[in-house]
């Protein structure tokens, strides 16, 4: 058993990318004496967990989401469920660098000891890495994620995303797009590079495929500058010039660019439009005032200035677009006037991955669960503060 994770890892490396669940099932049965396994994948809205090995399981997502699997997914901790026959189902998070993919269920003949649970958790970690790598080689796991057909624009947006969450020694970061299956031009992007975390939130103009194409050009222009060593200003200016010379000012992208020094808590910002930045400190939610500059692509050779502010250990930053902040369903006041702050304050005991879901669910409730009229983006960043222990394990 001590080498169970290694044996599973070797089996996964030898398996075709579309057969990882089956390869893991065989290896786990053999190494942990399991009677069966199941791999559950979280859907695009993170509202259900859906089986891969038995995709025809009736109401699989609903049942999994209501029970122990959901608790495991939310807490990111192993969860045990004992049966009357003495068997025990162990649910383990499938996560890579904080990106929550789903849950692995392993059914054992009896309740496991702590060492067995830890071994199973290592096994789940190996499977999560393999699933993340295989996602570019097969459509199987993406099919499991979708509960309805994605629009063409949404397909492009989800492929462009860096992920939905990331964990680091000094911070936790998560984001969510809605409506998940028809999102158009609004987007978020991030990158971790040493002590620097880059985060951008985009509020594109237009809708549908045209908006998605504009966002793709914008994101890739900023990535090109960033990956070439360009500063935050260079990222904004290259993207702005690229958009302008493609569209001659007829289209633009409101964007907030952030660069966080994850050791010192110093944040550089370029506010090029409408995304809103708010800080939750203790129980108080307050906007961070930045000088708003021109959206990217509005005029030729627009130049941008950087502003700075600091965060304290325990601070939570929210970035939302106008689809969240300015939502006015059925003649009500904008969501951002009061209701959004209440929903954000209610998340203070939740991890960032749960906080974005809470704000989105409250937004849907504010719309009386009707379809959102505009794309909605929520990004949540928790800065824990740097410590020698954190950095050693980072």
UniProtKB/TrEMBL annotation:
Transmembrane segments: none annotated. InterPro entries: Bact_Sigma-Reg, GAF-like_dom_sf, PPM-type-like_dom_sf, PPM-type_phosphatase-like_dom. Residues 166-383 form the PPM-type phosphatase domain. Keywords: Hydrolase. The lineage of its organism: Bacteria, Bacillati, Actinomycetota, Actinomycetes, Micromonosporales. The keyword Transport does not apply. It holds the Pfam family SpoIIE. It comes from Micromonospora viridifaciens. The keyword Hydrolase applies. GO terms for molecular function: phosphatase activity. This is Serine phosphatase RsbU, regulator of sigma subunit.
């Amino acid at each position: 058993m001590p080498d169970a994770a290694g044996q599973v890892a070797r089996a996964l490396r030898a398996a075709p990318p579309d057969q990882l669940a089956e390869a893991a099932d065989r290896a786990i049965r053999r190494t942990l004496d399991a009677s069966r396994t199941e791999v559950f994948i979280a859907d695009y809205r993170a509202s259900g967990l859906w089986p891969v090995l038995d995709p025809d399981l009736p109401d699989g997502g609903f049942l999994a989401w209501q029970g122990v699997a959901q608790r495991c997914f939310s807490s990111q901790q192993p969860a045990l469920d004992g049966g009357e026959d003495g068997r025990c189902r162990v649910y383990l998070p499938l996560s890579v660098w904080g990106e929550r993919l789903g849950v692995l269920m392993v059914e054992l003949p009896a309740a496991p000891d702590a060492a067995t649970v830890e071994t199973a958790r290592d096994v789940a970690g190996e499977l999560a890495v393999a699933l993340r790598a295989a996602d570019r080689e097969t459509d199987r796991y993406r099919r499991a994620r979708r509960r309805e057909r994605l629009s063409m624009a949404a397909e492009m947006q989800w492929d462009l995303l860096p992920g939905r969450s990331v964990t680091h020694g000094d911070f936790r970061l998560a984001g969510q797009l809605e409506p998940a299956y028809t999102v158009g031009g609004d987007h978020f992007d991030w990158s971790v590079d040493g002590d620097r975390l880059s985060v951008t939130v985009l509020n594109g103009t237009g809708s549908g495929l045209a908006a998605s194409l504009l966002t793709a050009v914008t994101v890739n222009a900023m990535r090109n500058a960033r990956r070439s060593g360009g500063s935050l200003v260079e990222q904004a200016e290259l993207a702005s010039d690229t958009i302008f010379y493609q569209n001659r000012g007829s289209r633009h992208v409101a964007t907030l660019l952030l660069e966080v020094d994850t050791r010192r808590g110093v944040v550089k910002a370029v506010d090029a439009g409408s995304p809103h930045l708010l800080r939750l400190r203790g129980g108080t939610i307050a906007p961070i005032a930045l000088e708003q500059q021109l959206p990217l692509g509005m005029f030729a050779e627009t130049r941008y200035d950087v502003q700075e502010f600091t965060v304290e250990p325990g601070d939570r930053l929210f970035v939302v677009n106008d689809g969240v902040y300015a939502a006015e369903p059925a003649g009500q006041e904008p969501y951002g006037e009061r209701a959004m702050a209440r929903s954000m304050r209610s998340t203070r005991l939740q991890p960032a991955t749960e906080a974005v879901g809470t704000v989105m669910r409250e937004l849907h409730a504010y719309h009386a669960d009707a379809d959102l009229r505009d794309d909605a983006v929520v990004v949540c960043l928790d800065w824990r503060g740097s410590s020698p222990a954190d950095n050693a394990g980072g």
